Amino acid sequence: MSAWLIGTVQGLREETPSARTLHLDVPGWMGNEAGQHLDVRLTAEDGYQAARSYSVSTAGSGQMLEISVDQLENGEVSPYLVHGLSAGDKVEVRGPLGRWFVWRPTQTEPIQLIGGGSGVAPLRAMLRAHEMAGSTAPMRLLYSVRSPRAAFYRDEFARLATSGSVRIDYVYTREAPPDWPMPPGRLSKEQVAVLTIPPDKTPTVYVCGPTSFVETVADWLVELGHDPANIRTERFGGK
Question: Is the same domain home to 213 and 191?
């Protein structure tokens, strides 16, 4: 297990009313692949410690990284990371962790990303790495989110979509923008069939979100004809 490192908060950006992205400078961090995660540990004045895992929403070498944190009700760690930190504060991190749920520029097969809520964070790292590498491998994102206000990385995703390098589709579950072509509602198997790369193209599919979302979508993908060996999943939910 890697050692705990001390990171300094260089900046903070609001993503949604309940989430923000932390820009961290972590001396000793050797970089990470797109899709990896890290542990964050907080220590109270009385010595009590709490640690949670968060996806790294950036990728590459060097000691700068970002994580995006959504506050969870009754959470121990996420409320402080979202509302308690200021620029210059210190946090302990350990990683990078995980070698399965990663995208590498050497991959040439089509890539389908499917994210639910804040589970889009590691998929954003893959989209960024894909762009930075100048990859020509087809890549698409299907993003299921409650409402436009709850969507992470809105401006960045809009830029990527208009650049033509990737395709990004949204499904809004509770509130859709005006004149949106689909009414709000939970993601369905039929939408997954229409809005993702078909199984005969043999894509690698990355699915990240709450456990129930991930399990349901993974089952649908298999039912639609995708090879289970080509489906990679990652669940989130630390407090």
Answer: yes
In the block, tokens 């709850």 appear at 150
For the question of whether the overall pTM of this predicted structure is more than 0.70, the answer is yes
Residues 6 or more apart whose Cβ sits within 8 Å of residue 1 = 94
Reading the block at residue 2, the tokens are 């890697």
Q: Which of 209, 54, 200 is nearest to 141 (CA)?
A: 209
Q: For residue range 55-114, what is the model confidence (pLDDT) as tens digits?
A: 999 999 999 999 999 998 878 899 999 999 999 999 999 999 999 999 999 999 999 999
Same-domain check for residues 118 and 191:
yes
For residue 106, tell me if it sits in a domain.
no
Distance CA 145, CA 135 (A): 27
Clarify whether residues 149 and 44 are in a common domain: no
DSSP-derived secondary structure letter, 56? B
**DSSP assignment letter at 45:** T
Range of the domain at 35: 5-97
Q: What is the pLDDT of residues 158-190, one digit of tens each?
A: 999 998 889 999 999 999 999 899 899 999 999
Please say which residue of 65, 97, 129 terminates a domain. Answer: 97
Cα distance between residue 158 and residue 167, in whole Å: 10
